[in-house]
Amino acid sequence: MSTFWILNYVLVLACAVVFSGIIIPKILLISFRKKLFDVPDARKIHHSSVPRLGGIAFKPVILFSLCLALGIDIITGNSWQLQEIYVGTLIPEILFLYCAVLTLYLVGIADDLIGVKYRAKFVVQIISAVMLICGGVWINNLGGILGLHEIPPYIGYPLTVLMVVFISNAINLIDGIDGLASGLSSVAIFIYGSAFIVHHQYLHAMIAFATWGVLIPFFYYNVFGNAEKEKKIFMGDTGSLTIGMLLSYLSIKLIASGTYPDSEASEVTVTAFAPLIIPCFDVVRVFIHRLKKKQNPFMPDKSHIHHKLLDIGMQQRPAMISIVTISAIFSVLNILFSRYININILLIADILIWTLMNMWLTRKIHSRNIDF
User: What are φ and ψ of residue 350, in 5° steps?
Assistant: First the structure.
């Protein structure tokens, strides 16, 4: 990897951190002046009125950081280093990605300000997924899951739509305590950025690091900010939908970026999905849990993994740190073991560990006489 690309990563990361750090306090100021709050209720953890418009900073800051870095490259005579941008279908891919993110970003703003029904959000998520497919990004290789490797478009297209909707909602639903969604997303994005560097997909690594950069200041204000001093903010649906789409894109792009040998394809597939194990597995568990109780599976409740940790007596911050740490460990171990263990065995082991962990938490809750 050349010094040129290292400087680009540092530049987009630094720009995203700086400009996000400048914009988020301004969003806080406007939110308090206009009284745009996430008001506490029986389902929510927080007890003070907190602005939930932090996600408004995400898309413009990421785009600005990328454009600034690429613009500097061009005016300094390094445009020849950017040849991959002009090769094949990368331009339409990036344009359709922009449209997909913008669509969810706008719906997220509407939801945070006036509310949007979940059915409407599902429709928009499907449309955004179709946009990615139009740009040429779709799941074309399962890396050996169920013995399948390369798959045809008539399977890959609907699977891509399903994955985009699934991942986007997983990030949205896991955003229940301070720092959890941004912490889990940061782990995933860092892994994706590193994987893209290894596979010489430098532009996609820049997208990953720009996204990571915007999450760092938000994490600070979300976790360490004081609501009474008007320094605390949530990402809201604007942020979770934006990050969810970018994570969907980066994960699908990683496994769909080329034709790998079967052994390497398995490693890449594990790298793409391992960082999303906790939010995705949690969505499946909660969905099944609600169906068993004959509840609407799409309506919010307090049965997520972070609620379980709170119910056994943990405070928000230790619960968040525990979940993010477990996610990082899960990811690293899966990626390392994927070189030696069949991907299907890994998947079964992950499901088993997740199930046993939840059973242990449920027993712990029952022992505290909490009706979960």
Answer: -60, -45
